[in-house]
Design a protein that fits this description.
The chain is an alpha/beta fold. It has 16 helices and 15 strands.
Length: 457
């Protein structure tokens, strides 16, 4: 179970974009909770949508008559400005665009975007359905709720395959499965949107008019205008959240993490997807790493299944921005990727090196997680927290020859056992005693990895 957090999201429906808040599942008093910013009146639950992050922030500062007012981190959210309540690219859901996505080839980004959109719709339905709980023995006709089309869509095997990733849509059977996804959407999506629309409050709980909402094509530009106006008013928090970390988490300040050379990577998913076509073709991928000393981007490939990075003599070169990394790649300095057959294509390309989400490794966040759990936040974090950072650490250590890291992650070691349990029981929560043991070991591991990183100008 993740730490209690509140995440700003954007929903686009019928060519209107509205902003609201989502509290992902968290555990409190032995029960699991999940909620959106909204209220229930006359047995109808509604999510409040706002025409801009600034309008959302103004509501949060002044109102507590909603379903998130008792959330553990609401006092933090109530102090945030538009900058911190602007959704990142991963939390913008275009319900109008699902047909277009389903019409594309099933690459990783199409599958992930479609899966995320259907997931958020199912979560909305779960939270907004106020139908009385029914006996499990009742038949389907007697047990119908307010979101029948959503339930029917999610129950489709083809839709369930989206959660398996792009591998589920490879080959002849995968092509058939992707066609099945499109068929299920053709059959049910309009009904899904109709059901959901009855529960969307486009008045911002009485603070906005329908005409205030931007068209989908204008929404992101208006986000930028909101931030510019807020900066002019002197109302922006000085240390903004890094890209991908806009969620506000229990035990932490706005922005979740503070990084000395904080990550500034903000890229449109379409730009990342377009860039990935080139980088995957040459077999060299952009990577971001975040350590206590800073955040930077580099390049990684695999030679005979062994990780190799942009660097030399076991040192990994990091750059503050993709632009600086691209400038270095176009130069003549020798390094360990020079001999890769496709390096000439990398040196000549104009395609920016934009890391995909699965190639971004934040080692500092796990440090904070272990500290919080060791200090008493037991039961709020599950073992999945180890998966992505450990994946990156193994590659960094392999390239740099850090034998001590392999010792720390050995199967019989405490960290190794925790990682193995995460693979075996991803939902198993981390206990305070375990976190107290793991924290100094993880800190040692991060220090070792940090020592291999060289920030380049």
């Amino acid at each position: 179970m993740a730490r209690p957090s509140i995440v700003p999201i954007a929903l686009t429906v019928d060519d209107r974009t509205g902003y609201t808040l989502w509290a992902p599942p968290w555990e409190e008093d032995g029960e699991e909770w999940q909620a959106f910013l909204g209220t229930t009146e006359d047995d109808t639950a509604k999510v409040h949508l706002f025409p801009s992050p600034a309008a959302l922030a103004a509501f949060c500062r002044s109102r507590t008559d909603h379903d998130l007012s008792d959330h553990p981190v609401w006092p933090i959210v109530a102090e945030l400005g538009a900058a911190d309540l602007t959704p990142d690219d991963d939390h913008r859901y275009d319900l109008d665009g699902v047909y277009d996505i389903a019409a594309e080839n099933p690459d990783r980004w199409a599958v992930e975007e479609l899966a995320a959109t259907i997931d958020i719709v199912s979560r909305l339905a779960e939270c907004l359905d106020t139908s009385p709980e029914t006996d499990e023995d009742l038949d389907d006709a007697e047990a119908e709720g307010q979101f029948e089309a959503v339930a029917e869509l999610v129950a489709k095997p083809e839709i369930g395959s989206l959660g398996l990733g792009v591998e589920a849509f490879v080959g002849r059977s995968g092509e058939d499965a992707w066609l099945g996804v499109g068929g299920a959407l053709d059959e049910l999506w309009e009904d899904v949107v109709e059901e959901l629309s009855e529960h969307l409050d486009w008045t911002g709980a009485g603070t906005a008019a329908v005409d205030d909402y931007p068209a989908a094509s204008e929404a992101e530009n208006l986000d930028a205008d909101d931030l510019d106006e807020e900066e002019a008013d002197g109302d922006v928090v000085a240390d903004r959240a890094p890209a991908g970390a806009s969620a506000v988490s229990a035990g932490g300040a706005p922005g979740v993490r503070t990084i000395a050379r904080g990550s500034k990577l903000t890229s449109d998913p379409a730009a990342v997807a377009a860039a990935a076509e080139f980088w995957e073709a040459v077999g060299i991928l952009p990577v971001e790493i975040v350590v206590p000393e800073g955040a930077g981007v580099t390049l990684r490939c695999y030679v005979d299944d062994v990780a190799r990075f942009l660097g030399k003599d076991g040192e990994i070169y990091l750059f503050d921005t993709p632009t600086e990394l691209a400038r270095f790649c176009a130069g003549t300095e020798e390094h360990d990727l020079t001999e890769i057959a496709s390096w000439a294509d990398v040196a000549d390309t104009q395609t920016p090196p934009l890391p995909a989400d699965q190639d971004r490794y934040d080692l500092t966040e796990l440090t904070e997680v272990l500290k919080e759990v060791a200090d008493g936040a037991a039961g709020l974090v599950d073992h999945r927290a180890f998966a992505q950072p450990v994946e990156g650490v193994r590659d960094f250590a392999e390239y740099a020859g850090l034998s001590r890291v392999e010792e720390l992650l050995a199967p019989a070691s405490p960290l190794g056992r925790a990682v193995a349990r995460g693979e075996r029981e991803p939902d198993a929560t981390l206990t305070a005693p375990d976190a107290a043991v793991l924290r100094p070991l993880w800190d040692e591991l991060v220090t070792l990895v940090s020592g291999t990183l060289v920030f380049r100008d």
